[in-house]
Every structure is written in structure tokens, then in C-alpha cells.
């Protein structure tokens, strides 16, 4: 299988930690329920490809996200390997935390919104009110020794409110990190952001005292900006990038959201720059080809399409 020609560029990190969201963000939006054994096999194939960090599922309301109602079953099917600090699950409230703790997780992610509209649509809360949910969750999770990530959604534009000011993002991010979270992921939920915005938001976060080594970028690829925006973030000093196998993804509560940055497209760019990821590109392509057969639809990723096609 073809590999990218390697040429290092200045100002880029030596290594990037890829935070794989295909199993959670990728599948949450699928209408047809994916069987739990297929989800478990997906995780195992990602592990075999060398992916260290995999967000496996969400302990959210099964009425809100029926696709992930099998969260506890999936963790049972995966066994001990799903319980580490590198296998976070989404948790919105204490009910979700109870379920996650019962399943024995080692890491969770809370997920806030920078905008009122999305807080209402996704969490049935206000921007202020979401902290009433997340505060006790983060505190209890830290007391239990869990690793905690905080997402902020709609950091670069919102389908209902339009433009989003960087200050608004920074204020929500700061409040989430003040709950004691270990990592922050800034989400372009609907994939509209451009590189200058990425710089402004990152500058704002750093000014607010959030260290770059705790910041991840989470770009959906609706307008084809996910990869250029990621490279901009790397030049600014970010080293954690969220992506999804094959470019799966979307948010059931923001219809204009499409798939995340594809892990394979990211790997092609990073490996071409000589940046270590620990992930085997051909094995990832094989995994996404397999998953696309399971879902009965072609992969979104340009690299999977190019490398998966007969020579
Ligand atoms: P609500 O309806 O206000 O909740 O939803 P409630 O507290 O009134 O409870 C309603 C019912 O749900 C009750 O059951 C609860 O027990 C149950 P009933 O008494 O009617 O039988 N319930 C739960 N059941 C299981 N697990 C739970 C749970 N919580 C309540 N955790 C709530 C509020 C937060 C629960 C709801 O809005 C929700 O689940 N939202 C999650 C939506 C979601 O998962 N969205 C996608 C993830 S976010 C995303 O994709 C963005 C991201 O990728 C970053 C980016 O791209 O920007 C992270
Ligand atoms: Mg997302």
C-alpha cells in the first residue's frame, strides 16, 4: 500500500496523540442500530491498528441517543481493555456517571456547549444550567480517580446562532477546566471554522491560563476545513487531535454536522510530515473498509477511498 513521502516541516510536533472518536461520535448518528458485537470488533480492530486512545460510547439518555443505549453491554463485551484511562465514555449527568462507574470505566468526558441554542438542543439546558449537571459529575469522577475530559461544542459557528465569539468559547472552556478536568477538546461541531478562528480561540484559551498540552482539537469536516485547521492548531503547539476512522460522524442534535476529520486523512498528513502517531495506516484503512461494509455505505475519507481502491 502506498505511503506518503516524508518531508519534515518546521514548527511541527514530533508526536501527535490521536483521540479516536469513530466508535462514539461516528456511530451515534447512525440510524440503524449497529450490533454490539460489531462495535466491539470495531474497537478491537482499532486497537490492533495501534490506536491508543479510543472513546468507546456514551452513557447518555437512551431516548436521546438510541444507538448508544448498549453502552454497558459494549463495555462488558470488551472486558478489561475497555476500562482504562485511554477508553473514555461520554457522561452528561449523575445518572450517566452512576451507569459508567457501575460499568467500571477509568475515564469520562463531559460535553458543554458554547452557545445557548446547542445547550438547549443537545442537553435540554442553558449555558449556565449545564454546569449544574457537569459540576457534580466532574467532582465525583475526580474523587473516584477517573480521568476527565471536557468538550466545548460550537466553538467556531452555530447552526442557529451563526457566528460564535472566541470569548464565549473561552469563558465556557475556563469554567469547565475549573471543575478539575484533565483535558479540553474544542469542537467545530458543524465543521464551518477556518484557520484564523482556530488561532484566535487557541490564543484566547492560552491567555485564560489553559495549557496547550491539555488542549485537543475536534473538527468535523463539513466544509473540508478539518485538516487545514488541524495543521494550524499543530503549528500553534497543540499535540492532541480527535479524528474518526473513515470519517464517520455527526451529531444527532445538529443536523448540519457531518463526519469528523478522518483518521486516515490525518495519518497521511502527519506521517508525511514525519510526525509519530503509533498507528499503522494500512491497518486503519482495512478497519474502515470493514466498517463501511458493516454500515453498507462508502467511507467518507479520501485516503481510505484512494488506498482501498484496486491499484
Ligand atoms: P432530559 O430529558 O432533560 O433528562 O435530558 P431528564 O433528567 O429529565 O431525564 C429524562 C429521562 O431520561 C429520565 O427517564 C431519566 O432517568 C433518563 P424517565 O424517568 O423518563 O424514564 N436519563 C438517563 N438515562 C440513562 N442515562 C442517562 C440519563 N439521563 C437521564 N445519563 C440529558 C437531559 C442530558 C439526559 C439529554 O439531553 C441527553 O442525554 N443528551 C445527550 C445528547 C448527546 O449524546 N448528544 C451527542 C453527544 S455531544 C456531541 O456529539 C458533540 C461532541 O462530539 C463535540 C463536538 O463535535 O462539538 C462531543
Ligand atoms: Mg463531535
Automatic annotation (TrEMBL):
**Pyruvate carboxyltransferase domain span:** 16-285
Keyword entries, A-Z: Lyase, Metal-binding
Give the top-rank taxon of the lineage listed in the UniProt record for this protein: Bacteria
Q: Which GO terms describe its molecular function?
A: lyase activity
Give the Pfam families listed for this entry.
Answer: HMGL-like
- Gene3D superfamilies per record: Aldolase class I
What protein family is recorded? Belongs to the HMG-CoA lyase family.
Name of the protein described by the UniProt record: Hydroxymethylglutaryl-CoA lyase
Native organism is Mobilicoccus caccae
Report the gene name: hmgL
